[in-house]
Amino acid sequence: MNIFDAVALLSISYIFPLPFWWFVIHSKFLALRKFGLGFHIMIMAIWVMIGIILFKYSFKILAYRLETRYTFFAGILLTCLVVFIDLKRQQDFSFTTIIGLPEVLPKKYKSKLITQGVFSYIRHPRYLEYILFALAMAFVTGSVICYLFFIYTLVAFNFLARLEEKELIQRFGKKYLAYMKRVPRFLPGLRA
Description:
Blueprint: H1 3-15, H2 18-26, H3 30-33, H4 38-56, H5 58-61, H6 72-90, H7 95-98, H8 101-104, H9 125-141, H10 144-172, H11 174-182
Helix pairs in contact: 1-4, 1-9, 6-9, 9-10, 10-11
């Protein structure tokens, strides 16, 4: 296994459970919320188990590949774009917000609508990062499992963005609706 395969498998083990975590944090799973940070530990355990399974069976998982001669450099460029978006996003979006503490512990962590920085160009930069990075890993490794994972991230994070927008409309009302009219979901210049 080369370094790109290892990064791809780590990415899959990290990104795959995120949509499930979103449902725990953002939905009405009040029974889970009463455990506070305990369910975060549970998600971490799931991440570790997925990683162990992926690495244990990596030779089988990575056996099927598509030609990568022309896509490798496109994958590297996409990875650079993801890093750029991430650095810009970190300027306005804290780690505590990313892991959902304002939703889980609203008395301690206040929720606010972020519309500056990269959020003035796209509404969901973090989801775009996951989608683009999955595509980048598919291009770099040529692994069929990575291409399938890209399709998963495209569908899952598009679905989550729509659900999250409904929640944000409830939370921020007209302010968020106005923001939605000004700023596209994922790609500057495209409204959805």
